[in-house]
Amino acid sequence: MTDPQTLSGHYPHQTGLTAYGNGGFRFAELSHKGSLLCLPSGMHAWSITSAAELTLESLQPIIDQADQIDVLLIGLGTEIVPIDPAIRAALRDRKIIVEATQTGGAIRTYNVLLAEDRPVAAALIAVENAR
Asked: Coiled coil: which residue ranges (predicted)?
């Protein structure tokens, strides 16, 4: 049975990811199509499809929860590109460390930090092919 909370693009618990690829992610025995924000408030659908779309506005949910986050992992899809210095500065001002890498690497690090009960968040751009 599908949890009604997931129908709105929000799962109310932060949890580890068990798989990615085919344009989405698996977590908590659920499948999510599209990009994903993994935040202290839970797992949220995210409309971003490429690193070129990253803006302070697209990261606002992270900024809103900055007091609960020490590390933000940004999964940039299959490529690694520079993050806008204004985004890095805004997050640094909120004492958030930013690590940007390919989505697969971001997921692996996110799962480790989450298992260690660290205050971590992830902004993950969905990919078709997992590596």
From this structure: none
pTM of this structure: 0.91
Domains (range + CATH), the chain: 4-124 (3.40.1230.10)
* DSSP structure string for the chain: ---HHHHTTEESS-----EEETTEEEETTEEEESEEEEETTEEEEE---SGGG--TTTTHHHHHTGGG-SEEEEE-TTS--PPPHHHHHHHHHTT-EEEEE-HHHHHHHHHHHHHTT--EEEEE---SS--
Report the percent of the chain where pLDDT is more than 90. 89
Buried b (16+ CB within 10 A) or exposed e, 5-37: ebeeeebeebeebeebeeebbebeeeebebbbb
Q: Compute the average pLDDT of residues 29-44.
A: 96
